[in-house]
Amino acid sequence: MRVLVTGAGGFIGATLLQLLQQVGQVGPQRITRLAAMDRTLPALPDSVERIEGELQDAQVQSRLAQFGADLCFHLAAVPGGAAEADPALSRRVNLDATLDLFNLLAEGRTRGSAAPVVVYASTIAVYGTPLPDPVTPGTPTRPALIYGAHKRACEILLADATRRGVLDGRSLRLPGIVARPRAASGLVSAFMSELLHALAAGESVTLPVGPQATAWWMSAQRCAENLLHAATMDPMLDTQGHMERTWALPVLRLSMQEVVDTLSALFGVDGHALARYAPQEPVEAVFGRYPVLDDRIARRLGLRDDGTAAELVQRALAPYAIQAANPNSSSV
Amino acid sequence: MRVLVTGAGGFIGATLLQLLQQVGQVGPQRITRLAAMDRTLPALPDSVERIEGELQDAQVQSRLAQFGADLCFHLAAVPGGAAEADPALSRRVNLDATLDLFNLLAEGRTRGSAAPVVVYASTIAVYGTPLPDPVTPGTPTRPALIYGAHKRACEILLADATRRGVLDGRSLRLPGIVARPRAASGLVSAFMSELLHALAAGESVTLPVGPQATAWWMSAQRCAENLLHAATMDPMLDTQGHMERTWALPVLRLSMQEVVDTLSALFGVDGHALARYAPQEPVEAVFGRYPVLDDRIARRLGLRDDGTAAELVQRALAPYAIQAANPNSSSV
Predict the structure, then answer these.
(1) How far apart are CA B200 and CA B271, in angstroms?
(2) What is the average pLDDT value for chain B, to the nearest integer?
(3) Coiled-coil regions in this chain (chains A, B) (predicted)?
């Protein structure tokens, strides 16, 4: 099985690429070739084929077509803030080049084989802000960023390609993922990752939301596992007989206070002293009032959250070789 | 005010173009220039500027940009069946060229003036088949044709351009419109128009659905009036504070039997003898079980159905100079 990961140089893509190398297979099928595509790629084992360049570049598209993936994890995208600052770039990458990729994957199908599987990294930004309460599989989408609008358009068109039988698409709506590297990412939501890093290191942190602010949490490792699972899971018919092709990932919904308590117990620090709250209403409105998510259908398909707050924190920090002082402490 | 109509050679576009010439203004604003764009255009008065060619053609796009519309009615599209037969063509016209048009309208904005208004002819095909029951403003879209998928994507991206303040978009989801010319259109839904033509002429007709089959009905004239109204109506905030930009048009939901009765009374014919029913299950499923439409919000904005079945029939047949024998007969 030939497997392609676009956006493989990114935070989540790199985690997924590593997971694929570790497990060596997708469901029962062995990975015979593995390709990583991104604008820039880090050093990679020789066994991973490198496709370096812009997704919208004709030469890159030609190399992607030549690779002829049986399974593509499509993560490459212009992120929300950059997309909003340059709508034309967002259209080129997040819409046009993404649809080009879908086309070339469909056209690259080997005669007689199944339609190529596309696992598409969509986003909870399709719902808009503030998030509707609750979020269910029937919640209308109202993207409030061009990033979310283009992602939603691609979800629809991937579902259509699936209906037409030329691709086998599975769109996962990803929440914010922790823990990003500490270097300033420019993302407003970076405070979620910073909270984990700071308290684990016994450092203070100031949060732009209050202690009761709720957010949806998932580690990069669990996210990668879900992307991999999505490649082989069997989408069910819903109660109306529709084959659903888009799911919000199950999440842990935790308050800042719960995460602080968990970090305090795991790392033996005084989180109440280290974590300071300077709530800013605009940040609270977008990142501090995550509602209940009805993710029962996604769970039934085998998609998973991190289990507990303690597992979330440990899984999120493991890539940084940060280990809890009291890994078995009971917490939230 | 410079007004552009794309798809002006089509059934609905031509009706709209005629209405614009008749009224000469949009709300309080006088139409100073009027342009008609389509692949092919009929003879038109000298006062109407002609832009003939494919929407995706660079020269056509350049002429559309030069025109610099303050208001664009965008009706040009590859219709459902043709789009399904050629997905790449649908992408070029119904998605790419439509987004190009949105861009060039936004870029053509005169400094200091309001964002150009775009009235976009979307479709009830965004809901998928069978239609969910009932259809409400919150009904999730599940297009079952690439035509509907591309229309839905453009609704989303027009709403996003509106959010960004570069356009003032209003998407109307059009139902099937009557009465198309009798010449074979290739549309399965043509039987709805044929029923009107045949009974008005005292001819027999065989319908592929049963007498109790319900459909959504609207005349081309009323549809054009709604498109015009949409250009100046004031979109309201919904109960969640969202500015809605997409509406299904209000419709008359009538059974075949009701339409036959209406035609019988208006034209003094024996509709029960002339209309024969040979229901085909696949046609019934798609065109014979239109559910209740919750169109209260659209009505509050001033969008309208045809009033009564008798008004619908007379308005639909008026362009063919077909007049009822008993215009004031009471009917449904």
Answers:
(1) 9
(2) 94
(3) none
Is the dihedral angle over the CA atoms B156, A116, A73, A64 positive or is it negative?
negative
User: b/e string for A203-230 if b means 16 or more Cβ within 10 A?
Assistant: eebebbbebebbbbbbbbbbbbbbbbbb
Instruction: Say if the ipTM goes beyond 0.90.
Output: yes
Q: Write the DSSP string, A267-281.
A: HT--HHHHEEE---H
Q: Do B99 and A87 touch (CB under 8 A)?
A: no
Nearest to B284 by CA among B211, B204, B175, B176: B211
- Nearest alpha-carbon partner for B119 in B252, B5, B24: B5
Query: Nearest 5°: phi and psi at B18?
Result: -65, -45
Query: pLDDT tens across B225-258, in order?
Result: 999 999 999 887 666 666 789 999 999 999 999 9
List, as ranges, residues 235-254 from A with C-beta within 8 Å of B.
Answer: 240, 242
Domains of chain B (ranges; CATH) run 2-174 (3.40.50.720)
pLDDT tens per residue, range A186-210 = 677 889 999 999 999 999 999 999 9
Average pLDDT, chain A: 94
Mutate to test the interface with B, among A90, A157, A239 (most CBs of B within 10 A): A157
